TrEMBL record, chain A:
Single Gene Ontology MF annotation: metal ion binding
Gene: ccmH
Functional summary from the UniProt entry: Possible subunit of a heme lyase.
Coiled coil regions, renumbered to chain: none
Keywords of the record: Heme, Iron, Membrane, Metal-binding, Signal, Transmembrane, Transmembrane helix
Gene Ontology, cellular component aspect: plasma membrane
Record flagged with keyword Signal: yes
Protein family (similarity comment): Belongs to the CcmH/CycL/Ccl2/NrfF family.
InterPro entries: C-type_cytochrome_biogenesis, CcmH/CycL/Ccl2/NrfF_N, CcmH/CycL/NrfF/Ccl2_sf
Signal peptide from the UniProt entry: 1-17
Top-level lineage group: Bacteria
Pfam families assigned: CcmH
Organism: Ruegeria meonggei
Protein name in the entry: Cytochrome c-type biogenesis protein
Automatic annotation (TrEMBL), chain B:
GO MF annotations, alphabetized: heme binding; heme transmembrane transporter activity
Residue intervals passing through the bilayer: 6-29, 41-62, 96-113, 125-142, 175-195, 207-229, 249-265, 274-293, 313-331, 352-374, 394-413, 425-442, 448-469, 489-511, 613-632
Residue ranges constituting the Cytochrome c-type biogenesis protein CcmF C-terminal domain according to the UniProt record: 315-635
Function: Required for the biogenesis of c-type cytochromes. Possible subunit of a heme lyase.
Protein name: Cytochrome c-type biogenesis protein CcmF
Gene Ontology cellular component terms for the protein in this record: plasma membrane
């Protein structure tokens, strides 16, 4: 329970995510930092990016990220720097490599399968004979109709 | 004393539910009318018993009966009355009682309003519904009993989580549960039809109102939750792709697919086995949602009191019900052959496309939600799947859906021509493109997101208008417009709502303005077209919290618009601080102000956002729910349902 309260306190704390003293003077660099930090996870929070989070660790990560950018890192290098230290768990957008390919391809593959199934169903329907004979009632249905009429 | 009565009523309801899930099934199999008709009074008695039991729990919260464990853990005598009541379902045990209350509410409603159902189908539906209730009664009574007493009652409680002490969130869970559990009705109908071995147009017509109702409740519930996140969490985010949000979103997507495919069953007697499967899976996702929230398996901001043992129990329920239903489906699906014949281009095929897109998009959300767990277990990779993934992987489906929607809605049944539908939509298309281009030229930054959103929203909205107008006949007439069936209006309004929400999400994301600074009291600063002045910061005492309240004067072009009062609150009992953003709601944009900590130089950290079209997100949701209601009000549902009871000649000639 105590941990839960702590976690909620971190989420709900009125401390802001990005503090005014963190903001870089160069607006272009700052914008890059903001864009990158929406894709990095705050490790002690529940499913929040460091851009949104109020936790101390998120602040440290934001500062670290800005340090790297000021030092002249490209976006890729800065991210790689953080991933090296904190693991791929920090990436909110999983890499498109290795077993993660399954994650990224699952949607498109499923769409192809669903489209193929839907297409074959539609073809079958459009080539089916008009259901003239099928409209006649089966024996059981006739029996039921008789029952209803008698009621 | 009254608490024990409530506990007793709950046990009694459990017993009634057990009998109700067995006797009518045997009756239906053997065609014994007495056994079958047992289901109706049983469903009503079961509902009355759970209703009483739930009322007792509410009463315990209202009177702050601190001899009950969950009242101590989730309430406080100084808490406002509304939150004492909503505290009843703001915790695990109470929310499960609410869940089972709604299961039996739907059962009782089917018993009361199901006059037109064939007796065997009705008996089976009520029995299956009751079997679901049995599982959850057992879950409540054996793992999470809300009527647990404490041996020594403390003087006061530990208060409800302050984040939950909010009008938006007081009603968020009940609506969501009405939606989740409403899908149990579609499930019961599907399983009953499988046992029965027949699905026909009438079945589609009976299932649709229940699905529609569930979908409306889910829409409202999700919208309330997202609105709450917007004004409460302090930075105006409205959707986080959090596992628990996804858990409510997946049933919503499937319910939307289901209510469209049920139309095909009703009108054309096709897509039967798919509709049955969809009904089973949709309820399956409701159970998965409950499992995700209650087990704490996936980390989420919503995971309140959770416990792996309870998760296992729900997983067990999930496996039995969904596994059982799918086995039954595999055995019986062959029996349901499609009857309707239709061309490759027709309303039917458009609805198939709708189902493909909605079902696959739901699959994407599901896969992304579960992937961190799968990756950890199978590949030993600890990774996260967050908002950036879902935005990239999910959005294309919604764009495709938005582009196809107006054309599909215009296509005639059986056989149609794309060209003809597209031709009647030419003005809608041109107007939508023109609007998007205009905005593209006007906006300062060159992001395509806003214009694309506007195009989709306008295309869907104008398309819905053209569609509605075309229903009034070749020439169109206003008189006929208002005599159109509720379903036509419902479709137009709900589709428009979808368009409005899409536009709003794109617009808000593209055109938001943010300002973070240390504001000195009395010194005005500018954000966008507004001038803000921090005038004063005061300490205020609330009923069960202390607040730091700021007065912020907002001016535009030298004219005073108003004073906003953002707050920081501290709830001493729950030892939790919260932010209360001050929002100036306007039609086209919200001004969103948050106050933070005081700095060493006497200034205060302030965050200001201009959030264009924020209201439109929830306005669109309201339109969608309203469209659902209009469709539900269609008299064709009632005529069909009560057809057998209507006396001959009692219906006025038209």
């Amino acid at each position: 329970m105590k941990r839960l309260v702590l976690i909620f306190a971190l989420i709900a704390s009125p401390l802001f995510a990005v503090q005014p003293d963190e903001v870089l003077d160069d607006p272009v660099l700052e914008q890059r930092a903001r864009d990158l930090s929406t894709g990095l996870r705050c490790l002690v929070c529940r499913n929040e990016s460091i851009d949104e989070s109020n936790a101390e660790l998120a602040r440290d990560l934001r500062l670290l990220l800005r340090e790297r950018l000021v030092a002249g890192d490209t976006d890729k290098q800065a991210i790689a720097f953080i991933v090296d230290r904190y693991g791929e768990y920090v990436l909110l957008k999983p890499t498109v490599a290795g077993s993660n390919l399954m994650l990224w391809l699952a949607g498109p593959i499923m769409l192809l399968i669903a489209a193929a199934v839907g297409w074959s169903f539609l073809r079958k329907r459009s080539q089916a004979q008009p259901a003239g004979g099928n409209d006649a009632l089966s024996e059981a249905e006739k029996e039921r109709l008789r029952q209803i009429l008698e009621e | 004393m009254i608490t024990e009565l409530g506990h007793f009523a709950l046990i009694l309801a459990f017993l009634v539910a057990i009998v109700q899930s067995v006797v009518p099934l045997i009756g239906a199999a053997k065609r014994w009318p007495g056994w079958m008709s047992f289901a109706e009074p049983a469903a009503i008695i079961q509902f009355l018993l759970v209703g009483f039991s739930f009322w007792v729990l509410v009463w315990a919260f209202v009177t702050s009966d601190f001899s009950l464990r969950i009242v101590v853990e989730n309430s406080h005598s100084a808490k406002p009355m509304l939150y004492k009541i909503s505290g009843t379902w703001g915790n695990h045990e109470g929310s499960m009682l609410l869940w089972v209350l709604i299961v039996s509410l739907f059962g009782a409603m089917a018993a009361v309003f199901g006059g037109g159902l064939p007796p065997t189908l009705k008996a089976r539906v009520l029995a299956v519904q009751s079997a679901i209730a049995v599982a959850f009664f057992a879950f409540i009574l054996f793992t999470s009993n809300p009527f647990d007493r404490l041996i020594v009652a403390p003087f006061d409680g530990r208060d409800l989580n302050p984040l939950l002490q909010d009008p938006g969130l007081a009603f968020h869970p009940p609506f969501l549960y009405l939606g989740y559990v409403g899908l149990s009705m579609a499930f019961s109908f599907a399983v009953a039809a499988l046992i029965e071995g027949r699905v026909d147009a009438a079945w589609g017509r009976w299932v649709r109102p229940w699905t529609l109702a569930a979908w409306i409740f889910l829409t409202i519930g999700i919208a309330l939750g997202s609105w709450w996140a917007y004004y409460e969490l302090g930075w105006g985010g409205f959707w986080f792709w959090d596992p628990v949000e996804n858990a409510s979103f997946m049933p919503w997507l499937l319910a939307a697919a289901l209510l469209h495919s049920a139309i095909v069953v009703e009108k054309r007697e096709a897509l039967k086995s798919w509709t049955i499967l969809l009904a089973i899976i949709a309820f399956g996702f409701s159970l998965i949602g409950t499992f995700i929230v209650r087990s704490g398996l996936l980390t989420s901001v919503h995971a309140f009191a959770n416990d792996p043992e309870r998760g296992v129990f729900i997983l067990f329920i999930l496996v039995i019900f969904i596994g059982g239903a799918l086995t039954l489906f595999a055995a019986r699906a062959q029996a349901m052959e499609a009857k309707g014949v239709f061309g490759m281009v027709s309303r039917e095929s458009a609805l198939v496309l709708n189902n493909v897109l909605l079902a696959v998009s739901c699959f994407v959300v599901f896969f992304g939600t579960m992937w961190p767990m799968v990756a950890e277990m199978a590949f030993d990779r600890k990774l996260s799947v967050g908002a950036p993934f879902f935005n990239a992987a999910f959005t294309p489906f919604m764009i495709a859906l938005g582009i196809a929607m107006p054309v599909g809605a215009m296509l005639p049944w059986k056989r149609g021509k794309i060209g003809k539908a597209a031709f009647s939509l030419r003005y809608a298309f041109v107007l939508a493109v023109a609007l998007a281009l205009l905005v593209w030229v006007m906006q300062t930054e060159r992001s395509a997101l806003g214009p694309i959103g506007l195009f989709l929203g306008a295309w869907i909205t104008f398309g819905a208008i053209v569609d509605l107008w075309s229903r009034t006949g070749r020439k169109g007439s206003f008189q006929r417009l208002f005599r159109l069936p509720g379903a036509d209006w419902g479709k137009a309004v709900a589709h428009t709502g979808m368009g409005v929400t899409m536009f709003a999400i794109a617009g808000l994301t593209a055109w938001e303005v943010e300002d973070i600074r240390v504001a000195q009291p009395g010194q005005p600063f500018e954000v966008g077209q507004f001038t803000l002045t921090l005038e004063d910061v005061r300490n205020v005492e609330g009923p069960n919290y202390f607040s730091t309240t700021a007065d912020v004067l907002v001016q535009q072009d030298g004219r005073t618009i108003g004073t906003l009062h953002p707050e920081k609150r501290d709830y001493p009992v729950a030892r939790m601080p919260t932010t209360e953003a001050a929002i100036d709601y306007r039609f086209l944009r919200d001004l969103y102000v948050v106050i933070g900590d005081q700095q060493a130089d006497g200034g205060w950290v302030m965050r200001t956002y201009i959030k264009p079209l924020a209201n439109w997100i929830w306005g669109g949701c309201i339109l969608m729910a309203l469209g659902g209601l209009l469709s539900l009000s269609d008299r064709r549902f009632r005529v069909a349902a009560g057809a057998r009871k209507a006396p001959a000649g009692g219906v006025p000639a038209e």
